[in-house]
Amino acid sequence: MYATILATLLFSLIAGPALAQSWPTMPDPQLTPGLARTDLTLDDICNTNWGTDARHVTNTMKQDVIAAYQFEIKACPLTPYEGNSVHREEIDHLIPRELGGADDEQNLWPECYEPVKKDKSKQADGAHKKDQLENELHKRVCEAMSADLLAEYQQKIATDWISLYHEIYDAP
């Protein structure tokens, strides 16, 4: 009996505390306040194929963001990727490019990929969920062709993207 207790105690000291299922889900507003471009029109935003255009985020910018956040990939949850379970992150735009977000360190932060759930209401907060929100906001802005709506979404996503997600998807 004492051997079992000793082994359990020793294991817990070596392994450390149990890892909680949490990871950073929001950027630090001091490091990443969000920044929108001022040189884009609504036509530019709505008629650019955002997945195929040229990005201007350099590897140096990415490394600077990681260093500023003192970010370690192990903070991200394990997620399936190409048949393996891995920790994944992206250097994400707080204000997404498809809403006029700038390729600037003031608009970049390290964001974890979360495990994907079939039931999206149980989806944790992370890069997949934010991507879903970004696509929906872009669609709404371009359907309305409204600069006011664009400015509202830019401000709300920069302030609290998770609350905006719930405002969009949990609305009756």
Short description:
This protein has 172 residues and is an alpha+beta fold. The chain contains five helices and four strands; from the N terminus they run αααββββαα.
Number of helices: 5
Radius of gyration: 19 Å
Low-confidence sequence ranges: 1-21
> What's the overall average pLDDT, rounded?
86
Portion of residues within helices: 40-55%
Major β-sheet, in short? 2 strands, antiparallel
Total domain modules: 1
Task: Identify the strand order in the major beta sheet.
Answer: 1-2
* Cα distance spanning the termini: 57 Å
Order of helices and strands: HHHEEEEHH
| Helix/sheet category | alpha+beta
Proportion of strand residues: 5-15%
- Spatial shape: globular
In total, how many beta strands? Answer: 4
Description:
The protein has one domain (24-169). Residues 1-21 have low confidence and may be disordered. It has a two-stranded antiparallel ribbon with strand order 1-2. It has a two-stranded antiparallel ribbon with strand order 3-4. The longest helix is centred in the C-terminal third of the chain and has 23 residues, at 147-169. The chain has helices at residues 2-15, 42-47, 59-69, 127-144, 147-169, and strands at residues 78-81, 84-87, 89-93, 108-112. The protein contains five helices and four strands, in the order H-H-H-E-E-E-E-H-H. Helix 4 (127-144) crosses helix 5. The radius of gyration is 19 Å and the shape is globular. Strand 1 and strand 2 form a beta hairpin. It is 42% helix and 10% strand. It is α+β, with helices and mostly antiparallel strands.
